[in-house]
Design a protein that fits this description.
Among the domains are: 66 residues, no CATH class; 54 residues, no CATH class. The protein is 46% helix and 17% strand. It has 10 helices and 8 strands. The radius of gyration is 23 Å and the shape is elongated.
């Protein structure tokens, strides 16, 4: 049993464009347009905005200028065409209970405790508990007892369901009942897909001083990745360190 105190965030997917289809659209409508970004999400965001006004070849020339104006105007629907995919690990079930409340523009696939054996699982300890030796001892003992109970229940339930013909079904029946004793601190993994507007909403809701600590740290980690990935969509955010060392995000363009 390992104790985890920091999540890991992996950007595993980003958009690509179909240049031939884009050019065919432009040719069919006798339009001329080029953009100065190679980031698929930024190309598609700019194209979507220009379709709204058929403003190809007109007005703001750079992608960052164009999308910056879109964000400033709070034309948020344009951001919904940009999509990024993340795998997040080393987080607690408490974290995912908070995360999945973000519904619009989000998709989730989470590790299943019904099918995955948790007898070798890890646990996520909050910093405020880890920093205090007495509180850490209380937390650790509680987690150990829950984990031991889970292992005993899985073994006992496997015997209870020994007459079930399929081994996979026996394991599922045992694990889905035994998981009831596992704490919210149990480590989990989750695949998350969201569009640009959804990620902005997530960052503004969670990367601030009022958010739960674990999800705030993950929101900042995601923001750092997205700022490198797409400065046109996320470059208006500034990461600020508070007096207690907590990092939060701020932008003049909230609720786009």
């Amino acid at each position: 049993m390992n104790i985890i105190r920091n999540a890991s965030v992996y950007l595993v997917g980003r958009q690509v464009t179909n240049p031939e289809a884009i050019q065919r659209f432009l040719d069919d409508h006798e339009l001329t347009w080029t953009t100065d970004t190679e980031v698929g999400a930024e190309v598609l965001g700019e194209m979507a905005g220009r379709v709204c006004y058929m403003s190809f070849g007109k007005g703001r020339k750079t992608n960052q200028e164009y999308l910056g104006n879109i964000i400033g105007m709070k034309h948020g629907s344009v951001l919904e065409h940009a999509v990024w995919n993340f795998v997040i690990t080393g987080v607690s079930r408490s974290f995912t209970h908070e995360l999945v409340r973000h519904r619009a523009g989000f998709g989730y696939s989470q590790l299943s405790q019904r099918y995955v054996d948790e007898s070798t699982t890890d646990f996520v300890e909050p910093d405020c508990i880890a920093e205090n030796a007495e509180l850490h001892t209380v937390w650790l003992e509680s987690v150990r007892q829950s984990h031991e109970a889970y292992c005993k229940l899985v073994a006992g339930l496997a015997h209870k369901f020994k007459d079930v013909e399929q081994a996979r079904m026996r394991r599922k029946l045992s694990r889905q009942a035994a998981r009831s004793v596992l704490p919210n601190a149990t480590e989990t993994k989750i695949f998350v897909t969201a569009n640009g507007r959804g990620w902005r909403h997530f960052i503004e809701a969670r990367a601030n001083e009022h958010a739960e600590v674990e999800i705030c740290k993950v929101a900042i980690a995601i923001l750092r990745i997205l700022q490198v990935e797409s400065p046109a969509f996320f470059g208006d955010y500034k990461i600020v360190e508070l007096a207690d060392g907590t990092e939060v995000a701020d932008t003049p363009n909230r609720k786009v």
